[in-house]
Amino acid sequence: MIFHFRDKFPQLNVFWDKYLPFQTRLEVPAKTILLEEGKISQNYIFIEKGCVRTFFNNNGEEKTVHFFFENEGLTSFNSFVNSIPSQFAVETIEPSVIYLLPKQYATQMIEELMEERNFMQMMLQIFAQRQTYYTNELISFIRDTPEQRYLNLLKDRPHIVQRVPQHYIASYLGVTKVHLSRIKSKIARGKSHF
């Protein structure tokens, strides 16, 4: 949704604070499922501390889709909006502190936000930014080798490599753990090429 853009749009903070009493603050261990694949998303999730991943099951094999960290928020958007089963699960990777805002209050808050000046412009900017990000991810997955994608992670999002277990990174890159180890060894030897 919109709240992991609070740093770029400080006017959101008033609404976040107003709806804080309707949120449930949870301290959860690693490997806590926050949303099961196939269930309807009922909450917007905001991460105060920790790391979360989204993934789906493909014939018994988990495929990691995305990682989220502090001050980011997520939901299974299509499920949340249209009350349909989620295509992916949401799980903590680290011990995490999260806030859950139920759908009824998220909807109410959006209705209030719509009265704000420049709200539509802000929403368009947010959606354009997210769309660009996901488009770039898709293009990279099609165009780049797993090695190039790993190098991109090291360059653009090193915190993922530093904090996320290797088997999740391998799943995210679409390779086995063994293949990822080979990629890392090749890079360490300085023989990587584009």
Automatic annotation (TrEMBL):
InterPro entries: cNMP-bd_dom, cNMP-bd_dom_sf, RmlC-like_jellyroll. Residues 27-111 form the Cyclic nucleotide-binding domain. SUPFAM superfamilies: cAMP-binding domain-like. Pfam families: cNMP_binding (PF00027). This is Crp/Fnr family transcriptional regulator. It comes from Chitinophaga filiformis.
